[in-house]
Amino acid sequence: MSTSSIENIGVFTSGGDAPGMNAAIRAVVRTALYYNIQVTGIRRGYEGMINGDMFLMDRRSVANIVQRGGTILKTARSELFRTPEGRKIAYEQLQKNKVDALVAIGGDGTFTGAKIFGNEFNMPVVGLPGTIDNDLFGTDFTIGYDTAINTAVSAVDKIRDTAESHDRLFIVEVMGRDCGLIALRTGIATGAEAILIPETINSGIESVFARLERGRRHKSSKIIIVAEADEAGGAFEIGDKIKEKYPNYDTRISILGHIQRGGSPTCMDRVLASRVGVAAVEALLDGHRNEMIGLIHNEISYTDFDHAIKHNTEINANFLKIVEILSL
Amino acid sequence: MSTSSIENIGVFTSGGDAPGMNAAIRAVVRTALYYNIQVTGIRRGYEGMINGDMFLMDRRSVANIVQRGGTILKTARSELFRTPEGRKIAYEQLQKNKVDALVAIGGDGTFTGAKIFGNEFNMPVVGLPGTIDNDLFGTDFTIGYDTAINTAVSAVDKIRDTAESHDRLFIVEVMGRDCGLIALRTGIATGAEAILIPETINSGIESVFARLERGRRHKSSKIIIVAEADEAGGAFEIGDKIKEKYPNYDTRISILGHIQRGGSPTCMDRVLASRVGVAAVEALLDGHRNEMIGLIHNEISYTDFDHAIKHNTEINANFLKIVEILSL
Amino acid sequence: MSTSSIENIGVFTSGGDAPGMNAAIRAVVRTALYYNIQVTGIRRGYEGMINGDMFLMDRRSVANIVQRGGTILKTARSELFRTPEGRKIAYEQLQKNKVDALVAIGGDGTFTGAKIFGNEFNMPVVGLPGTIDNDLFGTDFTIGYDTAINTAVSAVDKIRDTAESHDRLFIVEVMGRDCGLIALRTGIATGAEAILIPETINSGIESVFARLERGRRHKSSKIIIVAEADEAGGAFEIGDKIKEKYPNYDTRISILGHIQRGGSPTCMDRVLASRVGVAAVEALLDGHRNEMIGLIHNEISYTDFDHAIKHNTEINANFLKIVEILSL
Amino acid sequence: MSTSSIENIGVFTSGGDAPGMNAAIRAVVRTALYYNIQVTGIRRGYEGMINGDMFLMDRRSVANIVQRGGTILKTARSELFRTPEGRKIAYEQLQKNKVDALVAIGGDGTFTGAKIFGNEFNMPVVGLPGTIDNDLFGTDFTIGYDTAINTAVSAVDKIRDTAESHDRLFIVEVMGRDCGLIALRTGIATGAEAILIPETINSGIESVFARLERGRRHKSSKIIIVAEADEAGGAFEIGDKIKEKYPNYDTRISILGHIQRGGSPTCMDRVLASRVGVAAVEALLDGHRNEMIGLIHNEISYTDFDHAIKHNTEINANFLKIVEILSL
């Protein structure tokens, strides 16, 4: 480690909670202590920063949390932090608590705020990708994604039991507002007959009809996975179209919803969170600033906040072909 | 066993599927074979009976299914069976397949049909309580109920992670159209702040408001469990009222839905299904007719179909007091 | 509630930990507070009582623990408490902390100590059945038993996958030193080909040989469930005998061991723990002394400590016949 | 796809079973049918090949198996196949069934046989990495590894509950005869205090003592993860040494054993199996021979059998440092 003037690292979680955030917090805390640096836990993200809701953490603060879902530091969205006044108060609170560097755990909103704040006050900040959506550039996987897809898969497995028993068609909506990755992997893993994701919206309902026609002879139950689209809920709309076209199908809709955020993190999410958590503290000590610490090809990677939040997840075309082949 | 002229027992599942139905089918098949009686599997309940969709089962037919959700015999609802013509065809199909007695696995609809059919054609019929709703009289628990509440509890545990992380109020709707038993146990087991069930509908929303007021100081997250009421969905309505009264709460709604029906049955459901499955065959051989075989106080019980479907589940008043005390 | 002079209830867990102990602690704490009585948490059972390791608990002390395995109050065995001197110190520590009644959560060792202590110092004491072994008289189920058997069942399900894939015979040892109840239910629920329990030890290995002979034609995989017997491990001995008699079988041994104690409690264990926890405080206030609070036929029951620890669990003979019929 | 003379692909599983093998079989079958090629399922690996235990598969043969542990084609080890005579019979059986290409799912033993066989009879063969050990070169992960480590993690989480409740030290042995990868990830994910793996055997017991000394003040419970070493069981030996050095510790041993092989595969294992299963058939059609189809950096990779089984898994040095930092 290079010499560094960092003496007290603040750590916080922001945006939607994701399984593995606690493992990341634990890694940041223990690594800082390992390098004889103090760690300050900030509650409720930027909101708590503004409110001065922070406390010194020690080894025991993070004992026995590696397996817990949610985040012990809590999370919130902050309107005030979007204003220069809010950020100024936040900075003063950090100064009062002698915090001189930050590790921000969250997604694109979190990093957008972190970047502005780091630049405004010349505060060293790095980020960790904590979101179930896997929609960040600069890491193969985000913390929480693996747990979320396993939760979704396990839920669809249960629905398949009922679908098979009743020869039903189920339309199952999974999370992923702008991004179909959860839907895509869940669909492949559960043997879904069709997958509808924002990235291939053009193929749309007609392709679903085509698949249903083709699979008619072979399948008794059918499951269509849909990525959530908007507040109105894409699954219901698609359900209406299918019921209109195939009135004889026994069609049902299930919105998995919030269960996908919680639960004990998978091994992969805990290991990922632990690795990038250690690396984040070391990165700060090495002089990294305004970067997200991720994992690409099983190696630690450093990506500018600007680049990380560009949202350009690409859907692997092979995946769509795999669905086509396997759901026959 | 008394002497009996029964030589071929037909077994089927009907109504909504429930975890443990496969364990019950297995028990019926193996017990019949143990007593040197043939067993005929009838697919899709009364619908399959009418269509003659049935086959002789042997030991291997039920190998390795004790742990599977759903029902290998499938299930369906049959409009035709409600008519005398439909039942007559069904009877002829059973005769053609030499089936001379029936074990019906399902809920009140299933037993209503079984009773009429048994009387019309003088066919020996007994029933097994297979429904997640636990809404039958004559058994402490129905097959599938324990699995369903554990699935619901595990889902609410995940939601609690998010509720805690965000200081949110969640309204979670669980299954149970006419009956609040799933909601009640799920609520106690997850430490819910309030439970809304049809049986106490009068207490209603005002009591929820009162509880929310009282818990305000102590709790950061809040979970309200609601039994499903009607197609419109009770959770959304309740959510609207709470949002109106407490606009500052971060209120979310989650409908658990169909995931509660599937999944590998719990130990309790498998043991229950095995015990009543064995007892059902022995009951037929002993001359029992038109009875549901259940478990009361850990002993096999026999209840007239008429009595079993009377729907008079009573909510244990102590349970409501427990919620009152524990959710403080 | 009757008037009562109790002002501060001490609560502790003792003996082996069991899932649901935390739900029981929570219920005791919140019920005491509901009746405006103080609650003192005592850490590490009788050992902590002697060491004065205790603290006042409030609502927040038990927030968000209903779903956690283990016990937040920790548990230990205490040699010193077996001596009059040790118990005298314990009593003085309770006096110093103004504790004037106790709720002891544990098994027979816990209750033996509680009875002596209660009598020696005229201290009101009641107990809650917290043990995975289900070996107490006066309650249909003990707290932790349902979780333990579900953990065992889920482990054997996984082993069945391998047994089926390799056509193997597995001997799986489950917990239950003096009592075969875990083995019995696990065996029925997993479709075991044979079950060996202390209560039927005479039938022993010869009956296993007979079953293996009989099942030879039908089954490709075989699973034998054995209750743990002594330190040497019954499963290995049985394995040796089977390997000697059937050298062609591909025989493997698995000791489930300590995983059966942990994990998030099932719905049934949480509800049981909550109900008896509420009832324990109310029982103390109503003047009950030296009794274990259990659940018989779904109603709260009160059993003298002396009677509760008599260990006379009887194996339901029907259960053994069910195994005989179903494993064919 | 290039033109190809392949008309009937044989698929089989061999060696230890691994979760996800069924998903791989399903992908091979459906992809072959998609390209209008017949598929023959061969039961019990090379043993079944010699015995002619094979059958034509269709879409329904692999319906509803993507979520099942084990392998529907069963697996076995074959001594006879190690001889030229055995392999000759196997080839004749394949000819009789018109099988003209093979997909072998298994580990190094499987691929060693496949290579010899493919060369001897000029039979097109490709392999899929199906083993929980992740000890193959040419793929980032093997099918079954992710499920196995999640099973191990979930078991250690349960043990942590007991360790915490009793302030105990647990030595937990996980699978991995020659390879510490399961131990390493399980240890990081569960917050183990020390990890002992074959690759760092030199550091051995002294380093464990050092860690125990250092952690003494901070930790109440301790967990040491050990990779299985030999039949005698490494965990017991290490346990004896620790008990000798630290007689005051309450030390317990748990061998996770066979539960690590079974269970429903994780999302990652299902997606991996599906992707390489599709790619295997396409590889055969494209003229690939004697290669294992894996996934490197999220892209399909092709590795000579010779190279794949070289066993040169390297332990990432960073992983060991992470354990050092996080278990403080």
UniProtKB/TrEMBL annotation, chains A, B, C, D:
Active site positions, chain numbering? 133
Query: Which InterPro entries does this one have?
Result: ATP_PFK, ATP_PFK_prok-type, PFKA_ATP_prok, Phosphofructokinase_CS, Phosphofructokinase_dom, PKF_sf
Domain (Phosphofructokinase) ranges:
8-284
Residues that hold ADP according to the record: 26-30, 160, 191-193, 217, 219-221
Q: What is its EC number?
A: 2.7.1.11
* Keywords carried by this UniProt record: Allosteric enzyme, ATP-binding, Cytoplasm, Glycolysis, Kinase, Magnesium, Metal-binding, Nucleotide-binding, Transferase
Positions that bind substrate: 131-133, 168, 175-177, 228, 252, 258-261
Q: Which GO terms describe its cellular component?
A: 6-phosphofructokinase complex
Question: Hey, which pathway is this one from?
Answer: Carbohydrate degradation; glycolysis; D-glyceraldehyde 3-phosphate and glycerone phosphate from D-glucose: step 3/4
Q: Where, in this chain's numbering, is Mg(2+) bound?
A: 108
Control of this protein's activity: Allosterically activated by ADP and other diphosphonucleosides, and allosterically inhibited by phosphoenolpyruvate.
Its catalytic activity?
beta-D-fructose 6-phosphate + ATP = beta-D-fructose 1,6-bisphosphate + ADP + H(+)
One GO biological process term is: fructose 6-phosphate metabolic process
Q: GO molecular function terms here? A: 6-phosphofructokinase activity; AMP binding; ATP binding; fructose-6-phosphate binding; identical protein binding; metal ion binding; monosaccharide binding
Function, as annotated: Catalyzes the phosphorylation of D-fructose 6-phosphate to fructose 1,6-bisphosphate by ATP, the first committing step of glycolysis.
Belongs to which family?
Belongs to the phosphofructokinase type A (PFKA) family. ATP-dependent PFK group I subfamily. Prokaryotic clade 'B1' sub-subfamily.
Q: How does it assemble?
A: Homotetramer.
The entry's protein name is ATP-dependent 6-phosphofructokinase
